[in-house]
Amino acid sequence: MSKAFTSAEPEAAAIPGRAVVRAAPGEERPITAEGHAALVATREAVLVERDEAARAAYTERAARLRAIDHRLALASAALARVRVIDVGPCAGVARFGSTVAFRAEGGAVRRVRLVGPDEAEGTTRVSVLAPLGRALLGARAGSEVEVERPSGVVVLVVEAVE
User: Fold this and answer.
1) Closest Cα to residue 157, out of 21, 148, 146, 88?
2) Listed residue (73, 70, 74) closest to 117, CA to CA
3) pLDDT tens for residues 95-130?
4) What whole-number distance in Å separates Cα of residue 19 and Cα of residue 7?
5) Distances (CA, A) of 125 to 40, 68, 87
6) Which residues contact 36 (CB under 8 A, 6 or more apart)?
7) So what's the pLDDT on residue 53?
8) For residue 160, with 0-12 CB atoms within 10 Å meaning exposed, 13-18 middle and 19 or more buried, which class applies?
9) pLDDT above 70: percentage of residues in the chain
10) Angle at 135 between CA 131 and CA 141, to 5 degrees
């Protein structure tokens, strides 16, 4: 078999549908004018693609830095306006920093921590300024609280306050 139809390169390095053929040092291979033009055009297209990828990487880095700067500005602004509140023992009364377990009518027990609006997150940390947080403030185990929701008022039974 001719060396022109074999490749020493692994298949992963090959261009799909085309065998990778390396010339030996000093070896010249024949090519038509059209083949040469196509090869030059392919090379130019790859160079353009590489330049676009390099710019995209830079743009992506720049966008990432802008996002980081934005988050930094938000954090700095939040730090400038917050005041640390000492969270001591709650004596069984729901207050800032307390963890409250409650059950909605016919639902499972849910636990939330009452926190400030800058640290509220998802369903486990609820802002004391949110309707649920406001309703739970001052509650004790066994008490019922009402929370106004868009769908109407929901009654919650407080199971425990920690």
Assistant:
1) 146
2) 74
3) 988 899 999 887 899 999 898 888 888 889 898 889
4) 7
5) 61, 24, 15
6) none
7) 76
8) middle
9) 80
10) 145
Is pLDDT at 73 greater than 80 in this prediction?
Answer: yes
Burial class for 136, CB neighbours closer than 10 Å (0-12, 13-18, 19+): buried
* 136 in Cβ contact with 158 (< 8 Å): yes
Which residue is associated with the tokens 């995209």?
Answer: 56
Its sign, for the CA torsion 154, 157, 159, 161, is positive
pLDDT band at 24 (very low <50, low <70, confident <90, very high): low
Structure tokens given for 156: 């919650």
| Other CB atoms within 10 Å distance of the CB of residue 106 | 5
The separation between CA 21 and the C-alpha centre of its own chain, rounded to angstroms, equals: 44
